[in-house]
Amino acid sequence: MKSFFRSAIYTKLSFPIRPLNPNPHRAAPLALLLRPSAGGLSTLSSMASDGSGSNAPPSPTAAALEKQFEVFRHQLDGSGGLRELLRGVASEIESVTRIIQSSLLLIHQSRPVPEVLEKAKGRIGELRELYSKLAGIIQEYPGQYYRYHGDWRTETQTVVSLLAFMHYLETENLLLHAEAEEKLGCKFYLPRKIL
């Protein structure tokens, strides 16, 4: 073990210390980058371009980068707004799902099954409206289904599980895929168009 440490120390001391920066030029001091200035990003870009820190006009490359990042910022803002819309609908679906779950818990008491199912079935119309609202939002942004589907996937799995349980209590058969689509008013096999 001692020989290992000796060889490691010898290796460390025998090789010259080289900087990891492949650019040998000295970068602008950190204090210059951190000080507040009226120039903002253009000042930073001009300092990076000529290294002197003077307030020269920004280079065309810096202006193009600023414009590109402005576009990215707008895309991020739009994405955040869409995600908030989808999460709002998903939270409404979740609240209706909780109501259905609480009404189905009465099945464990000695209540008649049709009475319990009647209360739960009354909420399916609300779910249908929420899924049509969700489908409308997704249709406005084509090609973005898989980017955002995680925001409502868990709620949809819970809804389908509840529908399957209700269907089994009513018919003593398993719920088919087409029947779940019919009850919710959406097509699960067409995710890019509806859900």
UniProtKB/TrEMBL annotation:
GO terms for cellular component: cytoplasm; nucleus. It is found in: Cytoplasm; Nucleus. Coiled coil: none annotated. Keywords: Cytoplasm, DNA-binding, Nucleus, RNA-binding. Its main location: cytoplasm. One of its GO terms (molecular function) is RNA binding. InterPro entries: Translin_fam, Translin_N, Translin_sf. SUPFAM superfamilies: Translin. It holds the Pfam family Translin. Gene3D superfamilies: Translin, domain 1. Belongs to the translin family. This is Translin family protein. It comes from Striga hermonthica.
